[in-house]
Amino acid sequence: MLAAAILALCSQSMAAADPREEAKDRPEPYRQLVACREVQEAQARLACYDRQVAALEQATSRHEIVIADRKAVDTAKRGLFGFAAPVAKLMGFGGSDAAGDELKAIETTVTGVRRAAPGWVIDFEDGSTWEQNDTRDFVLSPKIGNEAKIERGLLGTFTVSVRGQRPIKMRRVK
């Protein structure tokens, strides 16, 4: 029974390591380009690459496919940090369901502060605006230019700490 369990686990991990399995979630023009590697004859393989690169280029020019490097993905994740939907799933690029790929915190600078009915409303240098959604308060009022840390909490909550103070719960409104 133990041997059967080990065999089942090994076959699953081998299937996950199969590049064809990993490529199933990739766009069709990309998969067709990668498939050109399988063509044995050099001239036919070159013709396949030329044809598929042109198709990929056409798809990107029509914005059917978006090509982004890690820096662009990270910038998009940071820009959307605090909104409900995970960026990778929303945007359809980069990332995965793995917890290690999720942005957990950002450090930023306060650019605007005001009090409103729910409590503090704070603007940050990245253009985001956060609104307090609990009853705690900062010991020292936040000021423009203060360093802040925004962290992902439990169950989709976020906390904001200004100048290293105890964090308060906030939600992103812009």
For the CA atoms, what is the radius of gyration?
A: 23 Å
- Tally of separate helices: 6
Q: Please state how the strands of the largest beta sheet are arranged side by side.
A: 1-2-3-6-5-4
Termini separation: 55 Å
Q: Report on the biggest sheet.
A: 6 strands, antiparallel, barrel
Global geometry = rod-shaped
- The low-confidence runs, each spanning 5 or more residues with pLDDT under 50, are 1-17, 93-97
Overall pLDDT score? 76
SSE order, one letter for each helix or strand: HHHHHHEEEEEE
Quaternary state reads single chain
Structural class: alpha+beta
Secondary structure: number of strands: 6
**Beta-strand residue percentage:** 15-25%
What is the percent of helical residues? 25-40%
List descriptors.
single chain, 174 residues, alpha+beta, rod-shaped
What does this structure look like?
The protein is an alpha+beta fold and 174 residues long. 36% of the residues lie in helices and 22% in strands. The protein has six helices and six strands. It has helices at residues 2-17, 19-22, 28-35, 42-61, 70-79, 87-91, and strands at residues 105-116, 119-124, 129-132, 147-152, 158-162, 168-172. The chain has a six-stranded antiparallel β-barrel with strand order 1-2-3-6-5-4. The longest helix has 20 residues, at 42-61. It starts with a helix and ends with a strand. Residues 1-17 and 93-97 have low confidence and may be disordered.
